[in-house]
Amino acid sequence: MATFKSESLESMVLDFAAHLRQQNGSEASLQALMTGTELVPKSNHIKYDCSLDLYNALEDKVIKDREAGVQKLTALLDDIDSDQLDEEIKRDYDVLRSEVQNMK
Question: What value does the CA radius of gyration of the chain take, rounded to a whole number of Å?
Fold first, then answer.
């Protein structure tokens, strides 16, 4: 069993989601991150990780209602303050936004 010692609720959610992703795949971590966006609504990193997992779930056709999934993904990405992301993640964020535009 994993033990999570985190400096903040945001870190704990991110660490827990990473553990779930490693052990059970991105569908499990997506559920944790969706909850995390409610627990820590100002966290750009949780929203970003959640966006990645949701994008992967859409690509893998795990989400039954694709239109609703794309709408949620767009809303998550729109809610991220990309100025608060480090440069590498910002570049990946920009690519992800572009990919989502192609999904519509």
Answer: 13
